[in-house]
């Protein structure tokens, strides 16, 4: 097993794991547990279910739900020290996790899968609200009017009620059908130049 100094130098890549549909969160929990108990924390880093928060307006009320973008798939960030590929040990741990049926991009017969391209990862992270971009520094104040430039309230104006610089989010109220409706927006989803 590589020591801590070596893991800082190891390249990382995202792989797509195929699971039984509806078992994505169970696989995520199982894999996180196996990573710790089998001492693989230096080769398997993050495990994500590709989901996004979706807001809909029903009967004048905004309802928020979590939608799974790709049912039957889980994303796993792994070390790739072997010419851009994962180690045999990491492949074995993930492949033999209960609920996992295989890797996307594997050609079968024990072959190792291809990792996602960086632009694919950026697109998925953005959809999940986990942009890997540099932090945006906005000059915002509570009570300020903003214009929403993305999402279900695109084109509408809102009033800032709270600012979370760490999460890069604002809580704002938007007028929907004559009622003030609270919503959370990312810094990239708003324009302060009105």
TrEMBL record:
- Determine if Transcription is one of this entry's keywords: yes
Q: Which PANTHER family match?
A: RHO-INTERACTING TRANSCRIPTION TERMINATION FACTOR NUSG, TRANSCRIPTION TERMINATION_ANTITERMINATION PROTEIN NUSG
Report the protein name in the record: Transcription termination/antitermination protein NusG
Q: Does the keyword Transmembrane helix apply?
A: no
Q: Where is the KOW domain?
A: 139-166
Q: NCBIfam families this protein is in?
A: nusG
Residue ranges constituting the NusG-like N-terminal domain according to the UniProt record: 11-128
Annotated keywords = Transcription, Transcription antitermination, Transcription regulation, Transcription termination
Q: Which domain of life is it from?
A: Bacteria
């Amino acid at each position: 097993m590589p020591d801590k100094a070596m893991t800082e130098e190891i390249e990382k890549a995202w792989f797509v794991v195929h699971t039984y549909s509806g078992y994505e969160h169970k696989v995520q929990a199982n894999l996180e547990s196996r990573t710790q108990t089998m001492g693989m924390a230096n080769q398997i880093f993050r495990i994500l279910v590709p989901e996004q928060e979706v807001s809909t307006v029903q009967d004048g009320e905004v309802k928020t739900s979590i939608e799974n973008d790709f049912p039957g798939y889980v994303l796993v960030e792994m070390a790739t020290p072997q010419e851009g590929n994962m180690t045999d040990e990491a492949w074995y741990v993930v492949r033999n996790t209960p609920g996992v049926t295989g890797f996307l991009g594997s050609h079968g017969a024990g072959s190792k899968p291809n990792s996602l391209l960086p632009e694919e990862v950026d697109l998925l992270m953005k959809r999940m609200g986990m942009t890997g971009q540099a932090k945006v520094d906005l000059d915002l104040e509570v009570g300020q009017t903003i214009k929403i430039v993305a999402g279900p309230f695109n084109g509408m104006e809102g009033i800032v009620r709270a600012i979370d610089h760490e999460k890069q989010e604002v809580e704002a109220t938007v007028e929907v059908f004559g009622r003030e409706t609270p919503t959370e927006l990312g810094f990239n989803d708003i324009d302060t130049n009105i």
